[in-house]
Write a structure and sequence with these properties.
This protein has about 260 residues and is of the alpha/beta class. The protein has a single domain, classed as Alpha/Beta hydrolase fold, catalytic domain (Rossmann fold). The protein has nine helices and eight strands. Strands 1-2-4-3-5-6-7-8 form an eight-stranded mixed sheet, sandwiched between helices. The longest helix has 18 residues. It is globular, with a radius of gyration of 17 Å. The two termini are about 25 Å apart.
Length: about 260
């Protein structure tokens, strides 16, 4: 079995940190906004690494990855991830993305449809609905407790300015209308087999958006998690998520 290793890659004006672990075909793991690659330890990483070589980067401005210009868009993050795959010599792969990570995968799958053979998008959004924008507008550097600061410092290792920039970005998304704006024509370009995972109690994105993506992506399946909130794949839900995602990937291989 391949031993875990960490690397850094200079691309597009940043230094991206990423971890490689496991053995088998490559599986790209993209964390959610405000998170980092370490979050996968709570979302089935140990099970995934038995089946795949995991590639788990920190998105720009997150975790150990730099972001000198303090600008983050899902589109630019998708370009970063495509460059990472180029650097690793990976022409095609499977991928899983949670929230921001799922949004990045939507961009990757429409920019270069042949790069992803199959993907699992968890709590992703075609666009930001008003209920999400309302939550985003309430984000402020000043309204976080010391406990929340300490939690963020464990994830993001480049100092408090990095954390402030992340919260400012989250608030700024409330005014973003072009970064996440996928219509049916865009979704129709996706050729990757796609498992869409949604919680039916998601406080950011209504489950109807998951149904809309299911209708729009040609080769898609929809799993609505009962009583699931945003990102219903962590901790107690991780084992079921890993089993479902691995089963989905195995079905796609059998169908190829």
């Amino acid at each position: 079995m391949r031993r875990m290793k960490t690397e850094r890659l200079a691309i597009h004006g940043i230094e991206m940190f990423y971890e490689i672990d496991g053995a088998g075909e490559p599986l790209l793991l993209l964390h959610g906004g405000g998170g980092c690659h370490e979050d996968w330890s709570y979302a089935g990483r140990d099970e995934f690494r038995k089946h795949f070589t995991l590639i788990a980067p920190d998105a720009r401005g997150h975790g150990h990855s730099t972001n000198p210009q303090r600008i983050i868009t899902h589109r630019q993050c998708a370009l970063d991830m495509l460059s990472l795959l180029d650097h690793l010599g990976i022409g095609r792969c499977r991928a899983i993305g949670i929230s921001m990570g799922g949004n990045i995968l939507l961009h990757m799958a429409t920019m270069q449809p042949k790069r992803l053979t199959a993907m699992v998008v968890v709590s992703a959004a075609m666009r930001f609905p008003e209920q999400a924008r309302k939550v985003m507008r309430e984000v402020s550097v000043e309204n976080h407790t010391e406990t929340e600061w300490q939690t963020m410092r464990k994830r993001h290792r480049l100092g408090d300015e990095q954390i402030r920039a992340l919260w400012e970005w989250q608030r700024g998304m409330s005014e973003s209308y072009d970064d996440m704006n996928f219509d049916w024509a865009a979704l129709a370009r996706i050729t990757a087999s796609t498992l869409i995972v949604y919680g039916d109690r998601d406080f950011l994105y209504p489950v109807e958006m998951g149904v809309e993506m299911y209708r729009g992506i040609p080769r898609s399946e929809l799993w609505v998690v009962p009583n699931g909130n945003h990102g219903p794949v962590f901790l107690a839900d991780a084992a079921r998520f890993a089993e479902t995602a691995i089963g989905f990937f195995e079905r796609q291989v059998a169908a190829e």
